[in-house]
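Archive transcription. Copying these from loose printouts into the bound notebook so they stop getting lost. Printout 1 of 2:
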Amino acid sequence: MALRRLGLESGRYQKSPRAEQARAWRRLLPLLPLLAAACAPVDAQQRNAARTDAAVATVAPAAPPSSGLQSGPQSGLQPVPGAMQPAPSAPSGMIAPQEAPLPLAPAASSPSMAQQAVIAARDAMQRKQWSVLAVTVPQARADILGMYPEYWLLRYQLWNLPANQRPTPDLQNFLRRNADSYLGDKLRQDWLLVAARSGDFDTVNKLGPVKNTGPQTECAILNARHMTGRKVDARQAMETFAPGPWCWTLYDQLVADKVLGWEQLEPQLRDAIENNKTSDAGKFASYMFDPAQMKAYDALMRDPMKWLVKQPKPPRSRAETELVTIALARLPRKDLDVADAYFRREWAKSLPRENVAWLRGQYALVAVLNLDSRANDWYVEAGHIRMTSYNQAWKVRAALRQPKIDWRWVMASIDAMPVSDRADPSWIYWYARGLAATGRKEEALRMYAGIADQFNFYGQLAAEELGRPITVPPRPAPVTAQELAQARANPGLQRAIAMFRLGWRPEAVPEWNFAIRDMDDRQLLAAAELARVENIYDRVVNTSDRTATQFDFSQRYIAPFEGRVAAKANEISLDPAWVYGLIRQESRFIMDARSSVGASGLMQLMPATAKWVARKIGMDNFTPASVNDFDTNTILGTNYLNMVLQDLGGSQVLASAGYNAGPRRPIQWRSTLNHPVEGAIFAETIPFTETRTYVKNVMANATYYAAIFTGQPQSLKQRLGQISPQAAEPTPLP
């Protein structure tokens, strides 16, 4: 099975009748153009306005426009005919209380008129039929999801109309009426970013902060502070920065104002070069180099060797030294052996020691990602210099792959990490292993104890180091009827459930997550129980996973479908706990989950793999359309998993990796070993980040499911086993 991202695209709400009704309603949508015809002039006006706005969007106004955040008369676009009318304003400086949520009715046999309007509004939004969307807004208002059409229209007007034509009163009223909702926060963020784009920094300052924030929003807020006279230092900017339009705008200004200089930008340029983010690297380079130097930079990025052979030794300036260093860092991407030999022969003695050390770390990273045995020696040559978190982690992993592990080097390498990285359970565990191996057993036990209560891969391994078998924690008091009723009355959860029923997973998930963001343990357990009642299994798991002191494993490690998955596994003597552990990681029990590369169903089968397995096991009635069917998907998935397991010598570690990345890859990874390694070390040193995380999660999941199914203590170490070297051989499996 091809390597695939774990993100899931939209899926139906467990094949709900409501989703089928939504599709039936969409078949009526051809009638809506009749409404659009009447509103065509308005659409034309909006398109013209959008073009006007695009022409001026990058030019800051001579004087910042009015923020529109104070009550009182406002200049702005009159509402689109048929759109919402502004609700009465609250007194100046006050926020009106949020309206009481509309009750969430059980799934009806046919959608109400208001719900039909919501469905039509979403379709119009997706088709960019803005006048049709405007017509649906008042018709949809009575539905539990009535705020969504209103938000979609306001978002369109906000982003596409000139500043003096935006419906400011409508924006204000929406924020007042939906102050503590996901969409209220989302519209606040939209308005903030639009204001930042047009240079209206006073509005940005008044709208911020937002609850569901991100780097671009935070960069916009920092830039507004800087532009209105409040000091923003380099540290704040660098901690917030992520590539994107508002963060680049912040950096443009801070570089121009000399808040950011070479000392801050050089590490970020090198990090971008390491990550092969060439567009970002070019932007950082433009801050650091003059036009002539940028011409050289462009040349070396096109062909580093061709450029390098023409350069003087040693470089004559700081900028030339950096350009040579970047060119040498690009070389191993084409041929590591040629690059290493050339670097050592021609440049190692002509560059500053710190540049040579950084380059050794870059060559080591390329080597270790190819499981090249030279990587550890090159990391030792580099020493404990500043590296990216990614490269720091691989320095430790390279050491763990050695026949005789130098535990003092492992501990020193972890000590060189940033504090936030050292706090990760993986590095706490391996540091504790180092302490134990070097005779500091009491310190090791204390470190193990610090993570042994965490329900993850390294929490389980730490517990076993303390002599604790892996068991299921005591179940907390059951969710009461009152607690469940309170969860059901939560307006955010109501809206999320309504959207799950319609099959609108992309909208439902963030609405749900926003609703549970500040819940305590009892509220989270109740919300998870509500999701169980509604058969929204991924929300059961993800919600219950957030509890801090009360742990209900019947939610965290839910095993739905009444044992039918276990039955399919038992039919071919496959470990049901492992299968459930894999499904929990693959799809979170969403029956028609679909990955970004096309893997489908509970067990995330790629179409070609499903077809191959069906032919192999004689499933004559298989069709591609049936891959999401429960029986079809689990029969094909368990059979394929069993084939991979047998092909990889019965190792669940290797087979889990093969199920995610394709069976040829763990065969190749195993062949690079020169001695047997612990299963935990093999899992930790898988070169693909997604597959490494996947394998650790699947194995930890399987251990807990085994404890639940058997009622007996379990051992993750025993399940991981040992991985021994074996020459790579062809496999017939796809």
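Printout 2 of 2:
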Amino acid sequence: MKIKKIGILALTLMLLVNILTGCSKKEEVEVEEVLKEEVTKEESKELVICTAKELTNLTTLTMNKENNIACGLIYESLVKYENDKIVPNLAKEWEWNDEGTVLTFKLQEGIKYHDREDFNAESVKKALDFNHLNPNFSGIKAVAELENVEVIDEYTVAITFPRPSLFYINDFCFQNVMSMMSPNVIEEGNYQTFTDVIGTGPYVRESFISGDSTVFVRNENYWGEKPYYEKIIVKYIPENLSRIQALNSGEVDLVYGADLITYDDFTQATSLKDIKGQVNENPTLTRNLILNTSSETLSDINIRKAIAHGVNKKAIAEGLTLGNEKVAERLFREGTPYTDVEIDEVYDYNVDKAKEYIEKSGWTLNESTNIYEKNGKKLSILYTYWTDLSLSNEIAQAVKADLGKIGIEVITEGKDQMTWWVDGVEGKYDITTWNTEGSYTEPNKFFTESMGADPHNISYQGLDNYQYIKGQIEEFSNIKDEERVKEIFKVLLNENNNNVIDLPITYAKDLVVYNGNKIKSYNFSNVPQFFDIFGVVPNN
């Protein structure tokens, strides 16, 4: 434990007083209290948070969700998303050529990586060239589609694209995968790990203890606003209950994010002495399901519409989120660019209407099982979900119960991330979870990725007008005519809705609980799925 100079001075003075004049018990207690106060102040400069998975690969190579708690400590992107707009970060300004095919970044000057390597145009070029070859970046068009990265001068870099797009700049906001890493950590051809964890951010990784924690210390040479905390300890605590117990015991100071805290956890935690919490007022993303039109059962539009009418979203919002999340009538939250369009059909919760759609397709209810049948076959569907996704199991069970009430049998299968994703891309599902990504990715990236290695692709292929939809997505991705882009999104949103490709459930929010004796409040950022150390307001 460190003791500040003032604390040492107080100790020295106490000894001198004892030696020269003697000291009453009361005076000794007063001096000791000063010392304790100074130690407490020093300790308050250390913040302990937690993660459900170890930070074994804290890199910008893949979108590992566990890194969302710490990537902002180490890495920074060229631009970032604030107050619903893209603003400067490591790049102080940018501009496009008249054709919209060359993006030029002017970089901040005088910044160094944690290893003292200069941040400059050469380091940006090396990072972008490396990412361009990384197969994990196929869904990030600004990297996957770039043709050339040119160093104009020490702090100017120009990126050439084959065609214009309104949305290339959005991709540079990704904090987890589009941030800048030291050129010294890159191994050509190695897209699995870096040789070290080195960025330009406000903290430096000091140590990693397997099975226990990762420690970060403040970057005293940081170019931006100096963070309050001198040390951040990220403890590895995989179980929900253990995280709340650790918060209550004082082992950790703060637990952040919907992936680590359910609404029930939040209620339990905030009922404890000195534990406070906040639910973000603004949604992070949309909790969403994909319906597979290419599957044998859901190729029938009537069954998909029956499901849309059969899921009680309001009950899910009130039961699983305790009323904190709003029912999602649309795929994207209100205010999302290009999505303020009139939707042709709204699917309210209506059991009778759901059954009408099922019976319209020739299914007959088996009174003994309460499941519809046709030609001796039950109306049964497979619902898959990623087990690590917040509320994924709970929503699956709620949907299963709802659809059981309209005569559809649901078999649920929770899977690890890779298995769930691969099976989804291969079409091995009738319903699967697939949340939106929120903020600067919506709606552009949601639709462009749906034509790639994404479970949407196989579902869209089941539609007669698949090629038309694919063409619309390709067009908006490759033009800078904003009015035409608006027209295309109106088409895409209605095609998606009318064909029940996606079934949005609620608009998800992030949460935080913390030790109220140490932390006054937390200010959520515009990209709340990432923990923001500058959002923590100390209680002094």
